[in-house]
Amino acid sequence: MNERAEPGPVGPPPRLPDGRWRWPDTVLWLIPLIWYFARPDYLVLGSQVMITALFALSLDLLLGYAGVVSLGHAAFFGLGAYTAGLLAVHGFREPLTGLACAGVVAAAAGCATSFLVVRGKGLSQLMITLGIGVLLHEAASKASSVTGGVDGLPDIAIGRVLGMFRFDLAGKTAYWYSAVVVFAGFVLVKRIVASPFGLSLRAIREGARRMPAIGAPVGHRLVAVFTIAAGLAGVAGALLTQTTQFVALEVLGFQRSAAVLVMLALGGTGRLYGAFAGTALYMVVQDRLARQDPAYWQFWIGVLLVAVVLFGRGGVLSGLEAARDRLRRIAR
Fold it and tell me: In terms of DSSP H, where are the helices of the chain?
């Protein structure tokens, strides 16, 4: 008679990601400090890289973690930009208040439109989000008495940060103001993706049809993440307005939505750091190429994108990880 095998010891259940600070986070946020001292003549470029990285991070929360495709994410970026600009034009120049209002307005718009977006999949999501972006762009163009139309909102006066730090021509205040706000946005997204809510978003991305079987409300969670992502995009737009003191109609344009998708493709989606790596690579290379070849710099950006897709599938970070794994195998 065969004896029954005794069950082995049961190990502890797997721990959920806790969002703790890791060494890659330290490396990431040492870069702005190094940039400030190493390239003091390029602080404006540095602040715009960080602002655009926050915008890319908000899209990564949708695309990389929840699997929601958007071609109109610039709509919320532009709403935040115009909210901060119009508040300043009408006398409300305190930057943190403008930032908060921009985030709320963009989040409210995201919540209102999310019910249309989350019903579709793939191509339908692309069409709906693109349509939302085009509608807002044309509405802002027509309402020229409010938005300034194609001329935008120039000469926006922004007050001192915390009543002490004035926005200077060298861009020092704008640089550190952008760094602090983007850092707060990064910490928030890091906590979100490491939470059970963030894990459920990944599960929805991988198999949305299976989630209702475990009682997960797929629609509600997609609405929630769409709202959060829209609010973050609005904060990024407000940051751009406050640091440049100008709002152009192109903040609502399709080209901005397409560019941020390219940045995510370069860096890698669903990685947190991919938004920063792709944005920095795209904008620094763009700045260099535009100086050397103002007419055809987009051609070389296209070559770079094709090269990354061919040789580093999943973005630059995936390519670096693959190279690291190869080196480890060789070393063994």
Answer: 23-38, 43-60, 74-89, 95-117, 123-142, 144-147, 172-194, 196-207, 218-244, 254-267, 273-292, 297-311, 316-331
- Predicted TM-score (pTM) of this structure: 0.88
**Per the domain annotation, does 153 fall within a domain?**
yes
Does the residue 160 lie in any domain? Answer: yes
What Å distances lie between residue 330 and 232, 320, 326, CA to CA? 43, 15, 6
CA distance 117 to 123: 11
Q: What are the backbone dihedrals phi and psi of residue 247, each rounded to the nearest 5 degrees, phi first?
A: -125, 120
Q: What is the pLDDT of residues 146-181, one digit of tens each?
A: 888 888 888 788 888 888 888 888 789 999 999 999
Tell me the residue range of the domain where 230 lies: 23-252
Asked whether residue 227 is domain-assigned, the answer is yes
Number of domains the chain contains:
1
Which two three-digit tokens encode residue 138? 């044309």
Please give the Cα distance from 110 to 75 (Å, whole number): 9
Please report whether residue 127 resides in a domain. Answer: yes
